[in-house]
Amino acid sequence: MAENMNWWKEGVFYQVYPRSFYDSNGDGIGDLPGITQKMDYLAWLGIDGIWLSPFFESPMDDFGYDITDYVNVDPIFGTLNDFDALMAKANELGLKVVLDLVPNHTSYKHPWFVESRSNRNNPKADWYIWHDAKDDGTPPNNWAAVSNIKTVGSAWAWDETRQQYYLASFSPVQPDLNWRNPAVKAAIMDVVKFWLKRGVYGFRIDMIDYLSKDAEFRDEPQATFDAKDYISASVYHVNQIETMHYVRELRTLLDQYPNRVTIGEVAYHQPLDLLLKFSEYGLDMPFNFRLSIAPLTKEFLTGFIKTYDETLTDKAQPNYSFANHDVLRGMRLGEPRARLAALLLLTLRGTPFIYYGEELGMENVDVPAERRQDPFVSYESGGNRDTNRTPMQWSAEPFAGFSPIEPWLPLGVNYATLNVEVEKQHPSSMLNLYKRLIDLRRAHPALHQGHMSVLDFDSNVYGYTRTANDDQALVLLNLGDVQEEVTLPEGDWRLQISTHHTQGDTPVTSPLTLQAYEGVVLAKIS
After folding, report:
1. Is 206 annotated as catalytic?
2. pTM, whole model, 2 decimals?
3. Catalytic annotation present for 265
């Protein structure tokens, strides 16, 4: 069977955080063999693409986003042979694996940086971004780091050996690579080739908008102490035109391998025209995190979804996610709204990304101070990121079937009733809602290929149609806490899915009554 060239446009992605997915060797930490063992579950769920968060060699100062070897597996997670076995299982099941690529920075313990900081004249002296202090000893400019503290601090860190500052846009343990050095660019391209040859289907590229910085190191004209404002207002630290050229070179490399995808982490608050520019230069999907940090209200959806969809049109692939490893889980909305979020995510035009455990309704866990592992504070959630990285809940067995011993982070208190084994047995569970939505999406061209038209309702109901040739779906979400009646568009409609009950494929009449916080998908009868 010929491979679907549009698999990443029409399919569903699932983000696996390796430390927390499944522990195969009994050390309390998830690993690559654990992912392989649980891959049948992802195939059952209907997933098409798996995004693996970093598993590369790392001192784990930022749990893998601080790398010391881009082309090897950290022993915590296994070996390269384990990765090859994972790929073999994925290929057997028809799943596409996408890796995290972290090209902006390494760990300060990476051999490249160890050599670079040793003196000013070594072969890798300019593999990182070094600069002399100002005459008064202060950092070279006012550029800010935004991920290690709630309010931004300087992006420059002092090195005693070189008697210079190095740029660390996120934290002092993550020095920025100098992409203006051709040797650096070539080294990262070699990393990309290494994993492509091992069969991966693309990359989610971490903080891609930071790759190039102003060559003159000019001060940002409007200094701010709000992380969100800093990124979006940055003129010299972020989004230089050279970055677009690097994106194009990366795209040229990936084009040597059929049907590979690039997903770029572009700062959440950037204007849509910037997202389009990234796509013009070859980035398949500038990652869209807006739904993971915004309220699920009609006001927000009306203001954002229509604009986003109509701006991108066919110039860039829309995509959505309600959670990831850096922001709170969808259950922050409460269960009724989290169910609406699932329906929205899997019926909008674009590619959906599901964070592991979202399909179960896993909750954000209040991790006690003595159990916290994350050294950084998320500037989006304002808190520790451990709360949304707790172990996957597989069963009611001790430690949720994740591990035979106490895991690296505590489990949700409700794991005995909220887990894969239990939820599979209950038709109305969150898991079965996700399963039914994914199956429906796959069965209806309108939901994975069709264009979208947002409808106007004078109520708390948000709705849209999805249409592909003679296949049409109608999606309605009551975002309010009172019952609403909706006059349906002309035609014969059948209920496919409701967030409130499991009855499906039944005729409905207009007006249709929606309960508070109920969402439905209807199919038009030809």
Report:
1. yes
2. 0.96
3. yes
